[in-house]
Write a structure and sequence with these properties.
Blueprint lengths: L1 E5 L9 H12 L3 E11 L12 E9 L5 H15 L10 E5 L4 H16 L4 H10 L3 E4 L5 H14 L5 E8 L12 H11 L3 E2 L2 E2 L4 E2 L9 E7 L2 H10 L5 E9 L7 E3 L9 E9 L4 E3 L3 E7 L4 E6 L6 H6 L6 E9 L2 E11 L3 E4 L2 E2 L2 E2 L1 E2 L6 E2 L6 E2 L3 E4 L7 E4 L17
Parallel strand pairs: 2-11, 12-13, 16-18
Antiparallel strand pairs: 1-3, 1-4, 2-3, 4-5, 6-10, 6-11, 7-10, 8-9, 13-15, 13-17, 14-15, 15-16, 17-18, 18-26, 19-25, 20-21, 22-23, 23-24
The structure holds zinc ion (ZN).
């Protein structure tokens, strides 16, 4: 059976992955866990999200069929005990898939993708659950049923692309205290396992980025392209005691949230891949954000590299009108927040006043051409010159400290 879980945490505490880790330990008494537990990141722009918008699915092979009701009871009781019911935005959902038809699989595959890319209503999840007679339990307003069903759907139908994350959890008495992690060992683990792991440290900003700063149960998470790689990095890290750890299979760092589109198709709270030309020169606005306009043959949209993207803004600032680029990112308030950019072609041409006698000629008045101040000669047209650019063609991305969970890092393209 597949067990899906979502929305048990709050901004301040808990974490749905920890609840899943505790549950996995308890479920082992009832049977075998198949494959890896799935950690699914849903649409990152959903306004109701608690923190990382993560949902979980566990695939369990029960030893005895007569235990199924007891398993469901155990899951529901664990959520009842551990979820943060006091938080207004915490609305847990639990889903149990016991068997499936081809029709149900097809419907779930579509629903799961939409949960990552689109904005769904609770009612849509409830309708599928009822239509296919899927047993479930929604708490409070039941919003968590969306993620619980979506994660179950991926467990049933598979993920088009996936990575791994090893999450280590803290001993309970340390929750809320400063994390004790030996930074040197983290840099060494990263150096030894790169490029098979990533986003452990941010070299450019000289920061360890794999540990949260919130008072939740997570000590740190190691991301990588195989179980072997994340385990190897884990074995090198020196830290406070690890209470337990789980290796998840996940849609993190896969770009699964991105929809290729034309600018006039763009909607708020979705994420896109847009190709076009820079329309206006980048501007630096209050707060240090860099903004430019992108146009294609359908419309124009504002694109932004916000302050937390740090050094990435230096690249964006160097763009010029007519540069041909592909941008990747989420759209909020009609502005695309750039996660990555591919500079396809740089506009290296510039019309300038012609040079004569070693100096730029001056405009002789509207429609009068250009005149040399020294020798008096006149030229009708400006000259097309080649401009030195400070950036080159190719892919650029935000640094690890600003990376969003779903965003595929360039290291995965190699
Ligand atoms: Zn001259």
């Amino acid at each position: 059976m597949i067990i899906g879980l979502d929305d048990t945490d709050s901004k301040e505490s808990m974490c749905t992955t920890y609840l899943a880790a505790v549950l996995i330990e308890k479920l082992k008494e009832y049977g075998r866990i198949n494959d890896y537990p799935l950690l699914i990141r849903l649409n990152p722009n959903i306004i109701y999200k608690t923190r990382g918008n993560a949902a979980l699915a566990i695939s369990l092979e029960p030893r005895r069929n007569k235990d199924i009701e007891a398993i469901k009871e155990l899951v529901i009781e664990t959520v009842r005990k551990m979820a943060v019911f006091s938080s207004e935005n915490t609305n847990p959902g639990v889903v149990f898939i016991e068997d499936s038809s081809e029709k149900m699989k097809a419907e779930l595959a579509e629903f799961s993708m939409r949960a990552v890319r689109d904005v769904l209503e609770i009612q849509e999840a409830v309708e599928i659950l009822r239509r296919h007679n899927i047993s479930h339990k929604g708490f409070k307003n039941g919003r968590g049923l969306i993620g619980a069903l979506a994660a179950s759907g991926f467990a049933l139908c598979g993920l088009p692309d996936f990575t791994y994350e090893l999450i280590a959890y803290r001993e309970k008495e340390r929750w809320g205290t400063l994390r004790d992690i030996n930074e040197e060992s983290v840099y060494a683990a990263d150096a030894a396992t790169r490029p098979d792991t990533w986003d452990t440290v941010d070299y450019e900003n000289k920061r360890v980025v794999f540990a949260p700063h919130s008072p939740d149960p997570i000590l740190f998470g190691i991301r990588g392209n195989s179980e072997n790689a994340v385990r190897r990095a884990f074995s090198m890290i020196k830290s406070e005691p690890v209470e337990m750890y789980v290796v998840y299979k996940t849609n993190q760092n896969t770009d699964l949230h991105l929809i290729p589109a034309k600018i006039n198709e763009v909607l708020d709270n979705r994420s896109y891949i847009l190709k076009g030309k820079v329309k206006s020169a980048p501007k630096i606005i209050v707060g240090g954000h860099v903004i430019f306009e992108l146009k294609d043959n359908s419309a124009v949209i504002e694109c932004a590299a916000f302050e937390p993207t740090k050094g990435f803004r230096r690249i964006i600032r160097e763009l010029r009108p007519q540069d041909d680029v592909t941008v990747f990112g989420s759209v909020k308030d009609k502005t695309l927040n750039i996660e990555k950019i591919n500079i396809n072609d740089l506009n290296i041409h510039e019309l300038r006043n012609p040079i004569c006698c070693g100096k730029r000629m001056k405009s002789a008045g509207k429609g009068q051409g250009y005149r040399c101040e020294k020798c008096g000669s006149v030229k009708k047209e400006q000259a097309l010159e080649i401009l030195e650019r400070k950036i080159s063609q190719g892919f650029y991305e935000v640094p690890p400290c600003a990376r969003r969970h779903l965003s595929k890092p360039l290291i995965r393209y190699q």
